[in-house]
Amino acid sequence: MALQVGIVGLPNVGKSTLFNAVSAAGAEAANYPFATIEPNVGTVAVPDARLDELTRLAKSAETIPTSVEFVDIAGLVKGASEGEGLGNQFLSHIAAVDAICHVVRCFDDDDIVHVDGSVDPERDIEVISTELLLKDLDVITKRAERAERTARSGDPEAKRAASVVGDLLAHVESGQPVRTFVLAPEDRAHLADLALLTDKPTLYAANVGEGDLPAGNSHVETVRKIAESEGAQVVVISAEAEAQIAELDPEEREEFLADLGLDASGLDKLITAAYELLGLLTFFTAGPKESRAWTVRRGSVAPAAAGKIHSDIQRGFIRANVITFEDYVALGGEQGAKEAGKLRQEGKDYVVADGDVIHFLHSS
Predict the structure, then answer these.
(1) Cβ–Cβ under 8 Å, residues 115 and 11
(2) Are residues 150 and 254 in the same domain?
(3) Environment class of residue 45 by beta-carbon count within 10 Å: exposed (0-12), middle (13-18) or buried (19+)?
């Protein structure tokens, strides 16, 4: 299953314009709130120049990148946690994603109305953050009440669960997001099924006018200060520019980016930031049939990576033949790497590294 990043924000901040540009899924972009009612999902290939190089060296018939799914969630407004503006429905859509991309309006345009009448990134971020936190508070409060009743049985595990949930409730009541709550690994199971919104990794996309690329403006500086206080990342992006980039062929795209002073599109930056946010890495398989990129979490061992290809390969895992991407390219492919002694045989405890080119051996 592809990584899902939910695009959230107030109405008219550029979410659907950005989504249209990066996914070609056709979300409606309109100059009024609630133009997007159902969550639109667009699957976007992750650009990786390494994959093209593997395809060339392995003489692959097909090139298959890994992908990210962007979910365009309708604009939230103040009171969403209580159902305002169909808020409960939209908040449930956020609960299903892996990470949140919070689009913040950092451009002035009299022709595009702001739901609160003016451009104020600090206020806008506070509105969204508060609504997510209030929704979590409601969920945690109900769980805490149930956990307290269960703990009266005297069962040690039930008492521990009640203690953990009670501590979390106090943390959230103080206005802190769930992701800043210090939780022992063995206690995480007590909260695993809650799908808490403020527990999700979050990055900010500061949406500026094309003329404010690449550095941004004073509004972006406000977003950066808030993000720094949260330990979050900021990607400066222009949904307006991304819409133009999406319509260009590769050669024109490079020229357009250069004219804007950019070395990568906003989409590329968002994907890179999302990968870093979730601690993901890419490994490859390469051969005459296809060269393909796969995504796993950092720290994954070889059998788990094999399972990304097929569960049968994971179950029957014997070993992994591994070549670093750098060695694969420098030595002209698998055969050259093998002859140079750069093909390693790794077992089930091997931790996969970014860029590994792997061939898994398994029993049938």
Answers:
(1) yes
(2) no
(3) middle
Contacts of 295 (CB under 8 A, 6+ apart): 3, 46, 66, 275, 280, 281, 282, 308
Arithmetic mean of pLDDT over the chain: 87
Give CA separation, 317 vs 16, 291, 304, 305, 320, in Å: 43, 21, 10, 10, 8
Q: Which two tokens stand for residue 270?
A: 């968002």
What would the two tokens of residue 71 be?
């979910």
d(CA 173, CA 90): 23
**Running DSSP on this structure, what letter comes out for residue 38?**
S
Q: Is 23 helix (H, G, I), strand (E, B) or coil?
A: helix
CATH number of the domain that residue 139 is part of: 1.10.150.300
Torsion sign across C-alpha atoms 235, 236, 240, 241: negative
User: Looking at the 3D structure of the chain, how many domains does it have?
Assistant: 3
DSSP 45: E
Look up the CATH number of the domain holding residue 316.
3.10.20.30
User: Strand, helix or coil at 324?
Assistant: coil
pTM: 0.82
What burial letters (b/e) apply to 114-130, b meaning 16+ CB within 10 Å? bbeeebbbeebbebbbe
pLDDT at 247 over 50: yes
Q: What is the CATH number of the domain that holds 75?
A: 3.40.50.300
Question: Same domain for 112 and 138?
Answer: no
Q: Over 50: is that where the pLDDT of 327 sits?
A: yes
pLDDT given at position 39: 58
> SS3 for 250-282, per residue?
HHHHHHHHHHCCCCCCHHHHHHHHHHHHHCEEE
| Closest of 354, 247, 352, 327 to residue 57, by C-alpha | 327
Burial profile 336-360: b = 16 or more Cβ within 10 angstroms, e = fewer: bbeeeebbeebeeebebeebbbbeb
